[in-house]
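pipeline/complex-builder :: batch 7 item 3
reading input block
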Amino acid sequence: MTLDDILEKINKAENIVILTHESPDGDAVGSSLAMQLIIEEIGKNADVIIPEYSRLFNFLPAANEIKKDSEIKKYDLAIGVDCTDLKRLAKYEYFENAKATIQIDHHGSNSMYADLNYVNPVSPACCEVIAGMLKYYEINITKDIGTCLMTGIITDTGGFRHSSITPETFEFTADLIRIGVDVPDIYKRTLRTKTRANFELSKRAMERMEILEDGKVTFTYITKKDEDEVNAEPGDHEGLVEIGRDIEGVEVSIFIRQRENNEDVYKISMRSSSYVNVSDICFIFGGGGHAKAAGALIQGNIEQVKEKVIKEVKKALK
Amino acid sequence: MTLDDILEKINKAENIVILTHESPDGDAVGSSLAMQLIIEEIGKNADVIIPEYSRLFNFLPAANEIKKDSEIKKYDLAIGVDCTDLKRLAKYEYFENAKATIQIDHHGSNSMYADLNYVNPVSPACCEVIAGMLKYYEINITKDIGTCLMTGIITDTGGFRHSSITPETFEFTADLIRIGVDVPDIYKRTLRTKTRANFELSKRAMERMEILEDGKVTFTYITKKDEDEVNAEPGDHEGLVEIGRDIEGVEVSIFIRQRENNEDVYKISMRSSSYVNVSDICFIFGGGGHAKAAGALIQGNIEQVKEKVIKEVKKALK
């Protein structure tokens, strides 16, 4: 059983590093810190390396111990969480150099890139996969571990909203409330709180939003100049892609965001409402994700990127 | 026990009417329709009279049976749901004229205006109060009843988000998923779906939003002219008051909405983030509600109303 092998590897390792994907969301940061705390419960220590993340996650237990980098170049064990591919791991060189590797994930598109792969694609969040591991290991869930896990569940389900949620998700949440995890506080900090910069970017994204294809598609964008003008920090563009999707009748929302100043490269984010598989569309451009939430990088200026993406979206519309 | 007396009154009545508050939200419409379905389970019939509600709630079971008015002037029994005061009930004359009255609510400020009052102020939604009644009566929750109850719980907790939620709320949700209630669908229809008009009104409200008092207070407004220009329907202003509250650092958000064209009367809606009791502030202006969500009607033009409200808000800020 993979879970027994994972526990054995953790027990054998002298030094352990935990990595997650670039532009980490709540599930990525929550899973990383939960794993760190669990490894402590097992009686070991682990470094969490996340070079850049939204300050909204600073409230998480042990967030102040997150390292941007490490002096240990060759870890005994590297653990990747919430990440589909080796090269998407931020600081993946630590993973490549490690003597042994484990990865834990919930994406159907996972490429099984570790020695031991524990992937449950029906789980709504990597944090829920980790919750299952805890149950298997019969490790007590502390309030701190629960807070990390709840953060991933809340952010990856959009606040108990996505079709991926299960009765077990709700029962687990009830259990966490009973041990003192402040679910409304986590919800507010991670999903509802908009930074001032995010509010200003939302305004611009809404102002520019085009509603196309008979109301089925929305398109909007943010440039690096916009981000500079509002003093945006990492994560301040979060949620902008969802504004379009949530308009009545919209099936696909497209949000593009310039990667660097004066550069014609855009990060596209797509969301779908019911039937369009946006992961398939992003795959055409070398990206991927989930059926209803995906992304990719595309070369071109705003008009060119828009044209390329909408051409593919049109084919998928009913 | 009040619950036994309520059941007895229902069993004795030949004709029953269910009423709820004006500008009904999901908890109001959900509670009304759930009560109607429950009364059917008991073996009786009831009319639901709601003169005006958002078409977002048209998906609810039996929504097509909602009446705008009735030909029966004197009902044997009138049941008010989710409403603090007699005069806030839409078509309250049916309540005044009824031979017997019951009301079911979860607002702490309830004025106990019926013959039988069943009020649980710690419940996050009137629908959760009704769920408790079902348990007491040992009535089986059907998928339809569950859909109505879930609608009230989702909308009144802002999607499992408010501090009013309990472990029991989550466990009840898990139970409802298991009997086939489509929680993500209800969530999407009631909380995430924005009508085009709501999107346009949000844009205007955000464009005009003033961030005051060192970032602790936001103020914005919508006129009747705005609503006319975007073809707003009942309910299309929902959620606008929350935009301000969700900005980092904001304690109180104020949203005012003109009642009629060319009339200097505004409906104020207020939300607070943690410590300000906006119900107390709205009470000064003859309104009320919950500590973190309240409303009132105020005379004056936009500037006058703004000044009056902010003067009171300032006193409550730390």
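note: The radius of gyration of chain B is 20 Å.
queue -> next item
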